[in-house]
Amino acid sequence: MKEGIHPKYQEVVFQDSSTGAQFLTRSTIRSERTCEVDGKTYPLVMVDISSASHPFFTGKQKFIDTAGRVEKFQRKYNWGKKDEKTEGEAAQG
């Protein structure tokens, strides 16, 4: 390995911003923030989602009404109604 070209691989604390859960692991990421865990100071990286807050891991998935969204979009832009009118006109013509 060449000297001086590799990033520093160190222990880092990742903290979930929504739950406050902390995970101590190793990474090359840099951070100006620090925190103390078990009497040692580590760089702190804040994350929006982790296994402590992600719906897949917590079992609190939210189901989105996609059919309602599609229908709302079609009503907004009159989709579907244009096709019905053109088919009806073609049958009459």
Concise summary:
This protein has helices at residues 55-58, 66-76, 81-92; strands spanning 10-16, 22-27, 34-37, 40-47.
Q: What would you report as the Rg, rounded to the nearest angstrom?
A: 26 Å
Q: What is the strand arrangement across the widest sheet? A: 2-1-4-3
Helix coverage percent of residues?
25-40%
Instruction: Estimate what percentage of residues fall within beta strands.
Output: 25-35%
Describe the protein:
With 93 residues, the protein is of the alpha+beta class. It has one domain (10-48, 65-92). The protein has helices spanning 55-58, 66-76, 81-92; strands at residues 10-16, 22-27, 34-37, 40-47. The protein has a 4-stranded mixed sheet, with no helix packed on it. A hairpin with a 5-residue loop joins strand 1 and strand 2 (22-27). The longest helix is centred in the last third of the chain and has 12 residues, at 81-92. The model has no long low-confidence stretch (mean pLDDT 80).
Helices and strands in order:
Blueprint: E1 10-16, E2 22-27, E3 34-37, E4 40-47, H1 55-58, H2 66-76, H3 81-92
Parallel strand pairs: 1-4
Antiparallel strand pairs: 1-2, 3-4
Core attributes:
93 residues, alpha+beta, single chain, 29% helix, 3 helices
